[in-house]
Amino acid sequence: MYIKSPLNYTGGKFKILDSVFQAFPANIRTFVDVFAGGFNVGINVEAETIICNDQIHYLIELFQMFQATDINRLLERIREIINTYQLTQQNKDGYYALRSDYNKTGDLTKLFVLTCYAFNHQIRFNNSHEFNSPFGRNRSSFNSNIEKNLTRFCQALQQKNIQFTNKDFTELDYLKLGPEDLVYCDPPYLISTGNYNDGNRGFKDWKEKEEGELLELLDKLNQTGIRFALSNVFYHKGLSNELLIEWSQKYQIHYIDKTYSNCNYQFKERDAVTVEVLITNY
């Protein structure tokens, strides 16, 4: 049974973990999760060492707090915040009071509680790095499922050998890696803009320049005998990533939805579907 991240992060891979892991090699010494996001992949990987990286430092700081804090103390602190602000699925004023206080203090537990009551549990910031997700009226709350997911997630963080870094993908040190390791990349999708990569959140956006830099990096890893796996989409809502499609022909293409594995990229219904792939060099 897979561990589910307590963060509902855009582009999370929890629902397709089976397909992703089927394409992973059996033995991994060091697993590098370059664009960790909600960390659904990295937390479930079997490896001697797991490196969790993301350019968004709020995510890394949350994970580090989860790793360093006793789960019972963390749950107690969460309940204190919920009681202090009288948070419910209907109390908009309490939510916005908490949001205002978090933006003044940067308290990480308050940030997590905010995500529980935010619209679609979204983590979203403005250009000034202020949390600005709206209230999730009648939908969002800290419930028993989130508590269960948080507990299992924290236990895994504390039991596994997980190290954290907060760097751009171009700044990571790949030189220490060897043929027994695996570099996993789940970058923002060039043809599917999420609120984390639209350039309006105070973080680096994702355009063709960044896409090209990543593909070039993966080519270099391949040349030095380091295994990689890249999650991405060929088609999405009528758009196609021609740069990725052409580049991928050098490697192994694993279709997440197996019905597209024999397509020639010219099928009529492509406007209506998302073709998700995992590209590997092994």
From TrEMBL:
Q: What molecular functions are annotated in GO for this chain? A: site-specific DNA-methyltransferase (adenine-specific) activity
- Gene3D superfamilies (UniProt xref): Adenine-specific Methyltransferase, Domain 2, Vaccinia Virus protein VP39
Write out the entry's keywords from A to Z: Methyltransferase, S-adenosyl-L-methionine, Transferase
**Which InterPro entries does this one have?**
Ade_MeTrfase_dom_2, DNA_methylase_N6_adenine_CS, M_m6A_EcoRV, MeTrfase_D12, SAM-dependent_MTases_sf
- What EC designation does it have? 2.1.1.72
Question: What biological process terms from GO does the record include?
Answer: methylation
Enzyme class, top EC level, equals transferase
Q: Which reaction does it catalyse?
A: a 2'-deoxyadenosine in DNA + S-adenosyl-L-methionine = an N(6)-methyl-2'-deoxyadenosine in DNA + S-adenosyl-L-homocysteine + H(+)
The record's comment on protein family reads: Belongs to the N(4)/N(6)-methyltransferase family.
This protein is called Site-specific DNA-methyltransferase (adenine-specific)
The organism encoding this protein is Lacrimispora defluvii
The major lineage groups are: Bacteria, Bacillati, Bacillota, Clostridia, Lachnospirales
